[in-house]
Amino acid sequence: MDGDDVCGLLPLVFNNSKLFGKSIISIPFVNYGGMLYSNVEAETALLNEAEKIRVNVNAGSVELRSSDNIHEGLPVKTQKVTFYLDLPENDEILFKSFKAKLRSQIRRPIKEEMYTKKGGVELLDDFYYVFCRNMKQLGTPVYSKDFFRAILQFLPQNSSILNIYSKEGHVAGGAFVIGYRERMEIPWASTLSKYNRFSPNMLMYWDVLRLAISKKYKQFDFGRCSRDSGTYRFKKQWRGATEHQLYWYYILPRGAEMPQINPDNPKYRLVINAWKKLPLFVANSIGPLIVRNLP
Question: Are 75 and 252 in contact (CB under 8 A)?
Fold first, then answer.
């Protein structure tokens, strides 16, 4: 505080997991939400206080997620990136800006009579049907359906679901989008592999972009991915999308290494392969109990 003026703000969430230990994160589950400050003194004060809290709760680390390179001297991970696409006034302008190949890929599922629906909680069951199957296929515990329902209920003006369906009316994919100020982001999206030959994700993403434009957002965030991954290449193909580096900083005990709680860590390979083989109802039952403590 500087008199009556707030000079900085740092949200912190404490995780106490029997599987992954104790940790603190600025905002879990999302890509941003780190520190806000107006001067260097406020930044220093917040970092020092975060370290005190880490010591008091005996946490292994404090993770600060940011879209900007701001905390000089702190250990930082830079493996994750996102893509931003500036949005025009209408979707016709955006469609014409794409290369012919991309426009053809968008039209392909339309030729197969696939279509989309957009809405809220009424589409949650179909979205979750695809999402939980996709997560198990990846070997990753799934969020509970109530997690998504809570977002839709508490942020009805800022969150939406857009699903894609086959011509027979069967759900083939789903996207969960969240908007804030002038930007819409797609943090969760998936499609069923049996429909891959029809490229449903192309139409799904295109209609998400159209949704963002209709809601008057100025920019679209494709969500985080690992550089040079398949997801990275998919997002990069959208003409006009620019790569943006993400920075995840860490406050650690002296001499400690940054935590590696992610699917790329070889120590989790056996567990991931085993998870893929679980019956779906088992994975859906115990997954939410595990993932609630994953950052």
Answer: yes
Q: Is there a contact between 225 and 231 (Cβ–Cβ < 8 Å)? A: yes
Q: How are beta strands 219-221 and 183-191 bridged, if at all?
A: parallel
Do both 218 and 251 map to the same domain? no
Q: Which of 204, 187, 213, 123 is nearest to 161 (CA)?
A: 123
Residue 271 within a domain: no
Measured from the Cβ of residue 48, the count of other Cβ atoms closer than 10 Å reads: 11
Q: Do both 166 and 241 map to the same domain?
A: yes
Contact 162, 207 (CB under 8 A): yes
Q: Is 195 exposed, middle or buried (0-12, 13-18, 19+ CB in 10 A)?
A: buried
SS3 127: helix
Residue 218 to residues 36, 87, 184, 209, 242: CA-CA distances in angstroms? 23, 5, 8, 11, 14
Which CATH number does the domain housing residue 153 bear? 3.40.630.30
Q: What is the pTM of this model?
A: 0.89
- What pLDDT digit, counting tens, does each position of 41-79 carry? 989 999 999 999 999 999 999 999 988 888 888 999 998
With 0-12 / 13-18 / 19 or more C-beta atoms within 10 angstroms meaning exposed / middle / buried, residue 266 is: exposed
pLDDT (average), residues 126-145: 93
Averaged over 131-145, what is the pLDDT?
91
* Cα–Cα distance list, 281 to 71, 133, 284, 286, 288 (Å): 43, 10, 5, 9, 12
> Do residues 39 and 127 share a domain?
no
85 shares a domain with 71: no
Whether residue 166 lies inside any domain: the answer is yes
Please tell me whether residues 167 and 238 are part of one structural domain: yes
Distances (CA, A) of 74 to 62, 77, 257: 11, 10, 12
Average pLDDT, the chain: 91
* CA 6 and chain centroid, separation: 29
Counting the structural domains of the chain, the total is: 2
